[in-house]
Design goal:
6 strands
């Protein structure tokens, strides 16, 4: 067996002996043993490594803070936020995060601290006020807006009870806003209110903001609704609320009006509401421009609740907060009817007999109002004639009582048995006097302005 490079062992003992290491080459340098770093060098090395890591962390944190400071914010539409007097930066940042204006409250607090401390003489003190933020406003824009204290905003007021088409027309006519509206929103998806906007706000952005506010509000009250309501979805609730909205402008009556329609739905009675007749004829236009006729009542449309059972297929306007709340929390009554009482409100009844008696009372008030109106017209004619003749007109200027008021409807509609009062629409929907009389009269209410 070879023990080296081709050399055979000379004896068994030599075969068992391990080979000797070769000799070191001549002229080679002999390396000494590596000596460990002393303790001072190790401390310095660790300290420098720590400093580098700290610098890297600070750089990364500064980059992240600046990124959050400059990047577009989460707002999907313009929003208005009220900063209360006395709120500190943490409370303000928390509110802005809750309202969806900024991504992170702590990022805002740190950015405000750093930039307020290192700023070149520019104060970023956060001030109380009411501020409008545009869609996608960055944290820098938000902080600078609040620090500026410029909370003077324009107001855009959208009344309750308008159709989406009417609201769009109103927004288009507002010169504070800019841009076009891409499409008329679905009926009942806008929340009427007074909105504070910055001059130059996009009209489309305001429409989307109204939609977002409506969805947010509905979500908040839907879970608090009364149990066992005959509305099974948010869409049905908005539809019923739109009818309640058009039926009365009296804040203290909404729950009772809602109860009338809820009770009728529970009894499978037709709602028989005049505003639904109008919407079925003119749709989003909103106003009929004349009184309702017997032919209008008899014309079957998808929305005419005199001719269809249950709710119409969708809302007939955009209801406000009060009407939505009243619809989901109607009064605990057994009322099935209501009619104008001559004072701007309504008289509610549980039975048809009670209702017919209330209708007769209203007719007396209405007749008196018509007689007073005729007397006023005659007096005006005499005044005009006396003026032309050069006579003394002072005696003809004495005010005359108008009974039910000048805004009372002039004619009573006709209808069928068990009919809910006619609609209180913007143009004072009342069936014309030429309509055929009925054994059970349909009452008219004060027009809702």
């Amino acid at each position: 067996m070879a023990t080296g490079a081709g050399r055979r062992p000379r004896s068994p003992a030599e075969a068992l002996e391990p080979l000797r290491a070769p000799q070191r080459p001549k002229g080679g340098r002999i390396r000494g043993e590596a000596r460990p770093l002393n303790s001072t060098a190790r401390v310095i090395s660790s300290f420098l490594t720590f400093i580098v890591l700290i610098m890297v962390a600070i750089g990364a944190g500064a980059w992240l803070l600046n990124h959050l400071y400059e990047r577009p914010g989460p707002l999907q539409h313009s929003a208005t936020v009220v900063i209360q007097k006395g709120d500190g930066r943490i409370a303000i940042a928390e509110q802005l995060e809750k309202e969806g204006v900024i991504w992170s409250r702590w990022a805002m607090v740190l950015n405000h601290l750093v930039r307020n401390s290192l700023g070149s003489g520019k104060s970023l003190e956060l001030k109380a006020g009411e501020y409008a933020f545009e869609r996608g406003a960055s944290m820098r824009q938000v902080i600078e807006t609040i620090a500026s204290g410029k909370s003077v905003l324009a107001k855009v007021t959208v009344p309750e009870g308008l159709t989406s088409q009417q609201i769009v027309e109103r927004i288009k006519a507002d010169e504070t806003l800019t841009g076009e509206i891409t499409a008329i929103p679905a009926e009942g998806t806008l929340l009427p209110d007074t909105y504070l906007v910055s001059p130059g706000t996009s009209r489309q952005d305001l429409v989307e903001r109204m939609q977002a506010e409506q969805a947010k509000f509905i979500e908040g009250i839907w879970e608090k609704r009364q149990p066992d309501l005959p509305v099974k979805s948010v869409a049905e609730a908005i539809t019923l609320a739109s009818i309640v909205e058009k039926e009365t402008g009296q804040a203290d009556e909404r729950e009772r009006v809602a109860a009338v329609f809820v009770n009728r739905l529970r009894k499978n009675m037709r709602l028989q509401s005049d505003p639904t007749i109008i919407y079925g004829i003119v749709g989003g236009q909103g106003t009929l421009g004349r009184s309702i006729t017997r032919a209008d009542i008899d014309t079957k449309t998808d929305y005419n609740t005199y001719r269809i059972n249950g709710l119409p297929p969708g809302p007939i306007c955009n209801p406000g907060r009060a009407a939505l709340i009243a619809t989901l929390n109607p009064a605990a009554t057994k009322d099935l009817y209501f009619v104008a009482d001559g004072s701007g409100g309504h008289k509610f009844s549980e039975t048809l007999a009670q209702h017919n008696a209330a209708v007769r009372d209203w007719r007396k008030i209405e007749k008196q109002s018509a007689d007073d109106a005729a007397a006023d017209a005659a007096r005006d004619a005499e005044t005009e004639k006396a003026g032309k003749d050069g006579g003394d007109t002072s005696a003809t200027l004495t005010p005359v009582s108008t009974g039910a008021g000048t805004d009372a409807p002039s004619a009573a509609p006709t209808g069928d048995a068990a009919i809910v009062p006619a609609a209180s629409t913007a143009e004072g929907a009342a069936v014309t006097a030429k309509a055929e009389p009925s054994n059970i009269p349909l009452p008219v209410r004060k027009p809702k302005l």
